[in-house]
Predict the 3D structure of the following.
Amino acid sequence: MGSQGFTWYRSRPPQRLPSSEIASWLQPLVENAVKHGIGGQVRGGSVTLRAELAGDDLLLTVLDDGPGPTPATRPGTGTSLADLRERLRLLYGEDSRLVAKAAPGGGFIAELRLPAGRRS
Protein backbone atom coordinates (compact mmCIF):
# COMPACT_ATOMS: atom_id res chain seq x y z
CA MET A 1 0.00 0.00 0.00
CA GLY A 2 1.32 3.46 -0.84
CA SER A 3 2.11 6.04 1.81
CA GLN A 4 -0.81 8.21 0.67
CA GLY A 5 -3.28 5.32 0.71
CA PHE A 6 -5.97 4.72 -1.86
CA THR A 7 -8.70 6.82 -3.38
CA TRP A 8 -11.93 4.93 -4.10
CA TYR A 9 -14.74 6.00 -6.40
CA ARG A 10 -17.99 4.05 -6.64
CA SER A 11 -21.02 4.65 -8.80
CA ARG A 12 -24.47 3.50 -7.73
CA PRO A 13 -25.31 0.13 -9.34
CA PRO A 14 -28.48 -0.36 -11.35
CA GLN A 15 -31.21 -2.10 -9.38
CA ARG A 16 -31.72 -5.03 -11.75
CA LEU A 17 -29.38 -7.38 -9.89
CA PRO A 18 -29.07 -7.78 -6.13
CA SER A 19 -26.15 -5.76 -4.79
CA SER A 20 -24.68 -8.95 -3.27
CA GLU A 21 -24.51 -10.47 -6.76
CA ILE A 22 -22.86 -7.36 -8.17
CA ALA A 23 -20.35 -7.44 -5.31
CA SER A 24 -19.49 -11.08 -6.01
CA TRP A 25 -18.61 -10.19 -9.61
CA LEU A 26 -16.62 -7.09 -8.64
CA GLN A 27 -14.64 -8.60 -5.72
CA PRO A 28 -12.00 -10.49 -7.74
CA LEU A 29 -11.62 -7.60 -10.18
CA VAL A 30 -11.08 -5.05 -7.41
CA GLU A 31 -8.70 -7.43 -5.62
CA ASN A 32 -6.64 -7.73 -8.81
CA ALA A 33 -6.66 -3.94 -9.31
CA VAL A 34 -5.25 -3.44 -5.82
CA LYS A 35 -2.81 -6.36 -5.77
CA HIS A 36 -1.44 -6.10 -9.29
CA GLY A 37 -2.26 -2.48 -10.13
CA ILE A 38 -1.92 0.11 -7.39
CA GLY A 39 -0.80 -1.90 -4.36
CA GLY A 40 2.91 -1.46 -4.89
CA GLN A 41 2.87 2.22 -5.80
CA VAL A 42 4.47 4.64 -3.37
CA ARG A 43 2.08 7.42 -4.45
CA GLY A 44 -1.01 5.30 -3.78
CA GLY A 45 -3.54 5.09 -6.54
CA SER A 46 -7.18 4.95 -7.45
CA VAL A 47 -9.62 2.24 -8.40
CA THR A 48 -12.79 3.30 -10.19
CA LEU A 49 -15.86 1.05 -10.14
CA ARG A 50 -18.63 1.68 -12.60
CA ALA A 51 -21.96 -0.13 -13.05
CA GLU A 52 -24.29 0.89 -15.84
CA LEU A 53 -27.01 -0.51 -18.03
CA ALA A 54 -26.14 -0.96 -21.70
CA GLY A 55 -29.38 -2.01 -23.36
CA ASP A 56 -30.46 -5.22 -21.60
CA ASP A 57 -26.98 -5.84 -20.22
CA LEU A 58 -25.23 -4.76 -17.06
CA LEU A 59 -21.74 -3.41 -17.69
CA LEU A 60 -19.40 -3.53 -14.68
CA THR A 61 -16.05 -1.78 -15.06
CA VAL A 62 -13.03 -1.73 -12.76
CA LEU A 63 -10.27 0.69 -13.72
CA ASP A 64 -7.03 1.33 -11.86
CA ASP A 65 -4.38 3.96 -12.51
CA GLY A 66 -1.44 1.68 -11.77
CA PRO A 67 1.40 1.03 -14.20
CA GLY A 68 -0.65 -1.36 -16.33
CA PRO A 69 0.66 -4.69 -17.54
CA THR A 70 4.43 -4.66 -17.88
CA PRO A 71 7.16 -7.29 -17.55
CA ALA A 72 7.87 -5.81 -14.09
CA THR A 73 4.28 -6.30 -12.93
CA ARG A 74 3.98 -8.90 -10.21
CA PRO A 75 2.87 -12.01 -12.04
CA GLY A 76 -0.24 -13.78 -10.95
CA THR A 77 -1.55 -17.18 -11.83
CA GLY A 78 -4.49 -15.80 -13.79
CA THR A 79 -6.74 -17.99 -11.68
CA SER A 80 -9.11 -15.22 -10.57
CA LEU A 81 -9.91 -14.11 -14.12
CA ALA A 82 -10.13 -17.70 -15.40
CA ASP A 83 -12.49 -18.63 -12.54
CA LEU A 84 -14.61 -15.55 -13.20
CA ARG A 85 -14.86 -16.38 -16.92
CA GLU A 86 -15.92 -19.93 -16.07
CA ARG A 87 -18.61 -18.69 -13.65
CA LEU A 88 -19.89 -16.35 -16.35
CA ARG A 89 -20.00 -19.17 -18.89
CA LEU A 90 -21.87 -21.49 -16.53
CA LEU A 91 -24.45 -18.88 -15.48
CA TYR A 92 -24.95 -16.85 -18.65
CA GLY A 93 -23.45 -18.84 -21.53
CA GLU A 94 -22.58 -16.74 -24.56
CA ASP A 95 -24.59 -13.79 -23.19
CA SER A 96 -21.67 -12.58 -21.06
CA ARG A 97 -18.04 -11.60 -21.44
CA LEU A 98 -15.02 -10.38 -19.52
CA VAL A 99 -12.39 -8.22 -21.19
CA ALA A 100 -9.24 -7.34 -19.23
CA LYS A 101 -6.57 -5.17 -20.85
CA ALA A 102 -4.27 -2.18 -20.54
CA ALA A 103 -6.31 1.00 -20.15
CA PRO A 104 -5.85 3.85 -22.59
CA GLY A 105 -3.53 6.36 -20.95
CA GLY A 106 -2.15 3.84 -18.44
CA GLY A 107 -3.45 1.50 -15.81
CA PHE A 108 -5.61 -1.56 -16.31
CA ILE A 109 -9.29 -2.00 -17.09
CA ALA A 110 -11.59 -4.98 -16.64
CA GLU A 111 -15.02 -4.83 -18.27
CA LEU A 112 -17.64 -7.38 -17.36
CA ARG A 113 -20.86 -7.60 -19.38
CA LEU A 114 -23.73 -9.80 -18.27
CA PRO A 115 -27.47 -9.95 -18.87
CA ALA A 116 -29.27 -7.73 -16.38
CA GLY A 117 -31.81 -9.63 -14.31
CA ARG A 118 -31.73 -12.96 -16.13
CA ARG A 119 -29.69 -16.15 -16.24
CA SER A 120 -29.39 -18.74 -18.99
